[in-house]
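seq as requested:
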Amino acid sequence: MSLNCKGRLIKLQPAVVMGILNSTPDSFYPGSRLDSPQAGVDRAGSMIEEGATILDIGGYSSRPGAEDISAAEELDRVLPLIQSVRTAFPETPLSVDTFRSDVARQAIDAGASMINDISGGQLDREMWALAADHQIPYVLMHMPGTPQNMQSNTQYQDVAMDVLDWLIEQVGHLRTFRMHDIIVDPGFGFGKTISQNFRLLHQLHTLRIMGLPIMVGLSRKSMVWKTLHRNADTALEGTTALHMIALQQGAHILRVHDVQPAMDAIRLWAAYADQHTEEAIPANT
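struct tokens:
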């Protein structure tokens, strides 16, 4: 599998890392918060050096119950960061993490070449046409409701099958826009209980039926630190453990705060998978 980011071809075998750059003062993981464009450039440089293929820039906190902010404030947060990182690292594809088409449009003009939409187009119906018009990769994520009310929308018959059915339906709609590169994200932590998150991870392989790249956002989330009775600051090892499971289940993109540990997981998974493949090939006789 591969993605075309404005002419830059990204191969997704065995998997790649998307580094998170948050220009928000209230992200759930304090260590990810950036207070200036220069801080973002410095963090971006470190992430690229450690192996990040894509950088995801967002200015709207989507943690459960986060404060809603205006599009103008979101733009004030993301545009200077996108412009600064794009200038410093012109060869690195930038994704904009937003559910607003106006924010995405201006971010693309500033240098973004991918859209990461946590609402899957449900909060702004113009988003799909925008992504199709620019023919850039689009991340379709499952989130019931909004960041403000999603945790009251956790009723499923079977969370894995319900998410799969929803993604298949939305991909069908997206195809009518002649969109080329669609990435699916089941939305860990978005309108799911901890138990449902683990059920979803256990059944992540079912998303392969769509034949599309799969992105996961597990990094330092509450399903890790609440299960371990810790906090987001001390959830790195648990995150890495879940990343390995996600890779085994077919994930192609790991969206992370910590690039080096995620790259280590990918390299180890690739070495294991190569060995498994070699054993599956009969020796010549």
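The first strand starts at residue 2 and ends at 5.
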